[in-house]
Design goal:
Structural class of chain A: alpha+beta
CATH topology of the largest domain in chain A: Aminoglycoside 3'-phosphotransferase, Chain: A, domain 2
Order of helices and strands of chain A: HEEEHEEEHHHHHHEEEEHHHHHH
Protein name (chains A, B): S-methyl-5-thioribose kinase
Number of strands of chain A: 10
Strand content of chain A: 5-15%
EC number (chains A, B): 2.7.1.100
Largest sheet of chain A: 5 strands, antiparallel
GO molecular function (chains A, B): ATP binding; S-methyl-5-thioribose kinase activity
Keywords (chains A, B): ATP-binding, Kinase, Nucleotide-binding, Transferase
Distance between the termini of chain A: 45 Å
Strand order of the largest sheet of chain A: 1-2-3-5-4
Oligomer: homodimer
Subunit structure (chains A, B): Homodimer.
CATH class of the largest domain in chain A: Alpha Beta
Shape of chain A: globular
């Protein structure tokens, strides 16, 4: 595991970030540049720099540890390389959906990239009830293209194996293995369980062996099903959006895993946004509109994925068996089943695990918060255990119920 | 892809092999050493050297191409590293079942190892009707230990990912992807189809879309299910044996794939040995005894695997979810299902593909050969399509029928 000791690496400050950008000629030496650190600061430093004519850019630098857990969880700086390489690869498939990479520095573990602050972080905006009419469609297209073209169907199968070597990502995968698939399902210290929720969690999560078994199988898929180069952390906090644009950032968790994981993570977060609406004292009408829009996005992400993936399969498949009748449909069906289960895990871990979400945490009313969280656990369980969720309509029904 | 151009690499002759061994002090400079090249010569040179006091060793050197297909299929010399590293790793788990590695030379792509000529190649001996009463048990133990300890259950999950990088094996995997899972199922030039068998193959293999679909799914498992470090080519020609000993050689196809592949390959080859017995003009009694012994081995390989794997699971599991009731049984059941399907592919590809086997090819009587091959195709299909082969007894029944 690589850590802070890597030769020549120094965490930037606002001043040194500005110097660095000037050194790279993004600004002139005498220019007045305004800088701010805007990262949530868990794993990375993120500097937004603005020149005197208003031109902006982002410098994202990896930290050698995970701050959310304390300095005690060292994290390889190599994830900065992974992130910038994945942004570049994905940029060849869906340039309109990823930020432009301007420069990469492997020693400083940083990437200089396009600033996206004209857009909003989807999680924050969805919470407020904002609608993003093209979000679901965009993520459907994003996942279809990035996952198809890095799979054994969309790229030379020998090249895929070589690519897989470059995205062996044990440190970051370990975080997901523990925080997504393991810790929330046992009574361990890293969990954050609201007062009033303990009894429910104990009875309905930790003591439900059928649920634990479903989670165990989902984790094993994550560990072994090397289908395509995933984003690996595709939640609404990794997405910038407005009414017409969508940009997916932060693929530092990228690795070759099950295609359903990215889709399931995103669906799970839309479900969380939906369930948390009940916690806010907005007008009933607004709340209904927000919920309907979220339901629409949940359906359109899958419908778009399904359509685009099937079209790519038909037009760009390199696998000789691909034209066998039924293979495409069966494969897409398997991706959907995986996605539903991963969404279930996401709902549960974001409700009681270490990495909680502001959708729930910023609900001021304690009872409403508890009710929303209980609903999230119930829906998460249902997604993991039901064998009847065959369509995105059924998924929405499970979330709404 | 690395080829013959690698710096300093020179294929050995008998004379230079002897010089090399003397240079490494395995023999004294003035000693009279007898050498012979004993490889089947498809992918490698294999020299057996015998000193004047009778001490023997093997030098195995990778060739930069696959001879069976001609110089036109270049093959990385890196497979010599893979083979010697896997022999060393496996040697830590089942030292009694692998040859001892004495020396490795990455430039010359060679491994010096223990000679095993006191044993017989299982394929040749089984064909003659020889019995190896411990063979099934040995391969059951071999697969259980090597595959458990290189899986996410038997080793640190981050270390497994790093190990997987070392055994990315695109060149050799490509051979299996094409010759095992693709070419035999289409009318392509590389196949070798006996006169008299064409009509059957066309109707029952190439035109059976249900069969092709089952093969497509099996191939996808091979491409994406990265469960454990496989041998990757575990047929009876890769096994030395006698009445009490078993040694598995040639893991140059090693990579992280589905656990059921090694077991299925071996089972498929026992089934081939069984079916081919009918082709030989041996006495009925001898044939019956040989067949009964093979049936016994088919059952004991699985029963031993199942028992040993379950015990390793219980005593050495690193996965926190492993103690969830039912997980072990369900996982072993999934391995069995995979193994049955892979065995089915092996039967078919060894009957009509490029890499045929002497079990069938040395049957002198044309009609008997055709009958045996037809039976192999029928059994192979059944293994791929049946959903009722839940036990090793049922597997034997399918082979015998």
């Amino acid at each position: 595991m690589s850590t802070a000791t890597e030769h020549g690496y120094t965490p930037l400050t606002i001043d040194t970030a500005i110097q660095y950008a000037k050194g790279q000629s993004y600004f002139t030496q005498n220019e007045e540049v305004y800088g701010e650190e805007i990262g949530d600061g868990n794993l990375n430093l993120v500097f937004r720099l603005t020149g005197q004519d208003g031109q902006r850019l982002i410098i994202k630098q990896a930290l050698p540890y995970a701050k959310v857990i304390g300095d005690s969880w060292p994290l390889t700086l190599d994830r900065a390389r992974i992130e910038s390489e994945v942004l570049t690869i994905y940029g060849t498939y869906v340039p309109e959906l990823v930020p432009k990479v301007l420069h990469t520095d492997s020693v400083q573990a940083l990437t200089v990239m396009e600033d996206l602050s004209h857009l909003q972080i989807a999680r924050k905006a969805l919470k407020k009830g904002d609608h993003f009419p093209v979000l679901g469609e965009a993520i459907g297209r994003y996942t279809a293209h990035t996952l198809f073209f890095t799979s054994d169907f969309g790229m030379n199968q020998q090249d895929k194996k070589q690519l897989q070597k470059r995205f062996c990502n044990p440190d970051l995968c370990k975080i997901t293995e523990e925080l997504f698939f393991t810790d929330p399902f046992y009574d361990v210290e890293s969990n954050s369980i609201d007062e009033g929720l303990q009894a429910y969690v104990k009875e309905h999560i930790w003591n439900d062996q059928t649920l634990l078994f479903a989670v165990a199988k989902a984790k094993y898929q994550f560990l072994t099903k090397a289908e395509a180069l995933l984003h690996g952390d595709l939640h609404t906090g990794s997405i910038f959006a407005d009414e017409t644009q969508t940009k997916v950032i932060d693929p530092e968790f990228a690795f070759f895993g099950p295609v359903g994981f990215d889709i399931g993570s995103f669906l799970g977060n839309l479900a969380i946004a939906h369930i948390s609406q009940a916690g806010y004292a907005t007008a009933d009408d607004d709340r209904q509109t927000a919920k309907q829009s979220l339901q629409q996005q949940m359906m359109s992400v899958w419908k778009t994925f399904e359509d685009e993936y099937a079209t790519l399969w038909q037009n760009h498949n390199v696998e000789p068996h691909a034209s066998i009748p039924g293979w495409s449909e069966k494969h897409i069906e398997a991706i959907w089943k995986d996605a539903v289960r991963f969404a279930g895990c996401e709902l549960i871990r974001r409700t009681i695990g270490l990495a909680l979400v502001e959708d729930f945490e910023s609900i001021a009313d304690k009872d409403r918060k508890l009710a929303a969280k209980t609903a999230a656990l119930r829906v998460g369980k249902h997604l993991l255990l039901s064998t009847n969720i065959h369509t995105s309509e059924a998924f929405v029904k499970a979330v709404v119920s």
